[in-house]
């Protein structure tokens, strides 16, 4: 049965080949194209096929092709990039999205936070294959606007799997949410209650509390979240308007670094649950612990560290017997690591000691994250023209290099005095971990349209975790029923059911 999922894409043809570098799955041709090199057919055969088939199927149904590559190691990603540039004669910047990394992160999430169901924050990276992979894995979605709702609903995700987690919404967006059956939303002021009541009579609210990790990359508390002193008034405002408040949400800040903030916020949320009961209001049953999670690439809080604090706080303040459903709204954690950006060098100037290069993406495109997200870039060369036999430039001398983006603004400087080998036009520079708050916030300044940057999907074998575990079991991880998720089933049929 497992093999059937993949036979749809012609995997059987691939299994007969010896030297496979990568295999392309294309839903349109329903045929696998395998290109030479080193994947053992055996490795493909040992994959958790049902789950993989599901992910490929949902991704491919959006018209994407998924290439199987040997591993998520730099050299295998770079080999794929090189192959793609060569076979498609590419000159424009592009992304490589490794779906296996998303699966691995999901697996790690389930292991670290078994009680917390992730509702992926679409704003962080709304790339269709990323969303469809999250949907296939059983995640819910946090949407912030009408168009995000439209995108997720159009993928066939059930409205019960979506939270409209923007505390201050446009009336027309609330109406739209109502029309597609997305009723769970957040609020933090009385004015929003009135607006919601007027535009969606079926709405169910989470009261968003202010909770700050002041050391996070972007603390959000200045803009959002009710103060403790406002809680009673806001609970009563909703009760008077006859809108149900079914739980509490918070967001300690994106790119969090202080685990204690989760603990404090969970403790504060419990007080709100108690306050509601003391006011004679119905018992709340959803706690939404927001985002802030990272893989810790840049010294932020690792998921495991956050999880230790969260699990302890949940045990103390929301023990399982309370029957409260716990959800979260992770964005960065799932989006950052799976995406690699490849850019081409198309200009060079040598001034004194410094080499200056022009590449075809920059501050007004993907690298807007340097300004908006305080990102740290980790470039590596792919010298496919100047060093054909050593494209990674291993062991070669490096020089102070400045790298400019393509627009005519001098602010469009991506790297300053960064050590890089000597490169020429037609060499490429590759940037890993470029999936969070990058593409989605780029512009089309000077006619360099960020939204036109292509994404190529890969699925790497030998990715830690899920490849050795029956990842099908992930689909069963979040079966606890709750009012807004009880239509969900994480059995084999869940995706097709949702898409009905
Ligand atoms: C309401 C809300 N939820 C979730 C997120 C995602 O946060 P993160 O990427 O830190 O997980 C954000 C980010 O701004 C947010 O505002």
Automatic annotation (TrEMBL):
Obligatory cofactor(s): pyridoxal 5'-phosphate
Alphabetized InterPro entries for the sequence: Ala_racemase/Decarboxylase_C, De-COase2_C, De-COase2_CS, De-COase2_N, De-COase2_pyr-phos_BS, Orn/DAP/Arg_de-COase, Orn_de-COase, PLP-binding_barrel
Domain Orn/DAP/Arg decarboxylase 2 N-terminal: 101-335
Residues that bear N6-(pyridoxal phosphate)lysine: 123
GO molecular function terms listed in the Swiss-Prot or TrEMBL record: ornithine decarboxylase activity
Active site residues per record: 408
Catalytic activity: L-ornithine + H(+) = putrescine + CO2
Record-linked Pfam families: Orn_Arg_deC_N, Orn_DAP_Arg_deC
EC number: 4.1.1.17
Pathway(s): Amine and polyamine biosynthesis; putrescine biosynthesis via L-ornithine pathway; putrescine from L-ornithine: step 1/1
Keyword GTP-binding part of the UniProt annotation: no
The name this protein goes by in its record: ornithine decarboxylase
């Amino acid at each position: 049965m497992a093999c059937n999922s993949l036979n749809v894409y012609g995997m059987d043809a691939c299994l007969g080949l010896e030297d496979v570098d990568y295999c392309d799955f294309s839903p349109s041709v329903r045929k696998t194209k395998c290109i030479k090199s080193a994947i053992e057919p055996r490795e493909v055969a040992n994959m958790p096929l049902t789950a993989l088939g599901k992910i490929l199927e949902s991704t491919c149904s959006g018209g994407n092709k998924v290439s199987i590559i040997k591993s998520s190691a730099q050299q295998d990603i770079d080999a794929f990039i090189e192959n793609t540039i060569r076979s498609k004669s590419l000159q424009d910047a592009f992304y490589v999205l490794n779906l296996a990394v998303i699966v691995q992160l999901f697996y790690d999430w389930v292991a670290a936070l078994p009680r917390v169901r992730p509702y992926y924050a679409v704003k962080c990276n709304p790339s269709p294959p990323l969303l469809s992979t999250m949907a296939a894995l059983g995640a819910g979605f946090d949407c912030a606007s009408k168009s995000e709702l439209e995108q997720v609903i159009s993928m066939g995700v059930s409205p019960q799997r979506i939270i409209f987690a923007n505390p201050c919404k446009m009336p027309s967006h609330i109406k739209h949410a109502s029309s597609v059956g997305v009723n769970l939303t957040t609020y933090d002021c009385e004015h929003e209650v009135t607006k919601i009541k007027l535009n969606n009579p079926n709405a169910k609210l989470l009261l968003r509390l202010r909770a700050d990790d002041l050391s996070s990359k972007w603390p959000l508390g200045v803009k959002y979240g009710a103060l403790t002193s406002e809680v009673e008034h806001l609970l009563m405002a909703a009760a008077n308007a006859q809108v149900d408040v079914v739980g509490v949400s918070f967001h300690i800040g994106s790119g969090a670094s202080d685990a204690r903030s989760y603990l404090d916020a969970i403790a504060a949320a419990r007080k709100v649950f108690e306050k509601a009961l003391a006011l004679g209001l119905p018992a709340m049953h959803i706690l939404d612990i927001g985002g802030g999670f990272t893989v810790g690439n840049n010294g932020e809080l690792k998921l495991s560290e956050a999880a230790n604090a969260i699990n302890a706080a949940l045990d103390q303040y929301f023990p399982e017997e309370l029957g409260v459903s716990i959800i979260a709204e992770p964005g960065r954690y799932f989006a950052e690591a799976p995406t690699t950006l490849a850019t081409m060098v198309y200009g060079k100037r040598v001034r004194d000691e410094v080499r200056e290069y022009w590449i075809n993406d920059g501050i007004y495109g993907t690298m807007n994250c340097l300004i908006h997200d305080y990102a740290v870039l980790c470039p590596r060369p792919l010298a496919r023209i100047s060093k054909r036999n050593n494209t990674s430039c291993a062991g070669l001398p490096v020089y102070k290099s400045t790298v400019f983006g393509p627009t005519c603004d001098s602010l469009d400087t991506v790297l300053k005095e960064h050590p890089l080998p000597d490169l020429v036009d037609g060499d490429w520079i590759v940037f890993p971990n470029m999936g969070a708050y990058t593409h989605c916030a780029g512009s089309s300044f000077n006619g360099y349209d960020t939204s036109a940057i292509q994404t190529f999907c890969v699925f790497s074998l030998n990715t830690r975790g899920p490849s050795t575990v029956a990842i099908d079991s992930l689909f069963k991880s979040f079966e606890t029923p709750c009012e807004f998720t009880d239509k969900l089933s994480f059995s084999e049929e869940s995706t097709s059911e949702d898409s009905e």
